[in-house]
Amino acid sequence: MIKKVLITGDVHSKIEQRLQYIKDTMPEYLPEETAVIILGDFGANYYLSKHDWKIKHHAAKFGYTIYALRGNHEQRASLVKNMELVY
């Protein structure tokens, strides 16, 4: 159950470093209870290749629920395989 929300700006493919920083400096934000919202330029839907998959895979290992808004350095969601549109 999500109890806490953290909001961050552009991470430009450096989500692993950002999540590690959260884990190291904010232990009260438990991954299973925390959503991280990235306000654009996540960097994991840029190349539409294995590079993007690796970024998502490494981020998922941290256990946080991640929401990302599309930035100007991302492909449109309609071009991303297995992308889920949520209303």
Structural account:
This protein is of the alpha/beta class and 87 residues long. Strands 1-2-3 form a 3-stranded parallel beta sheet, with no helix packed on it. Helix 1 links the parallel strand 1 and strand 2.
Distance between the termini: 20 Å
Strand order of the largest sheet: 1-2-3
In N-to-C order, the SSE pattern is EHEHE
Class from secondary-structure proportions = alpha/beta
Strands, count: 3
Q: The biggest beta sheet, please?
A: 3 strands, parallel
Low-confidence stretches: none
Total number of helical segments?
2
Topology:
Elements: E1 4-8, H1 15-25, E2 34-39, H2 50-60, E3 65-69
Parallel strand pairs: 1-2, 2-3
List keywords for this structure.
single chain; 87 residues; alpha/beta; three-stranded parallel sheet; 18% strand
Summarize this, please?
This protein has 87 residues and is of the alpha/beta class. It has two helices and three strands.
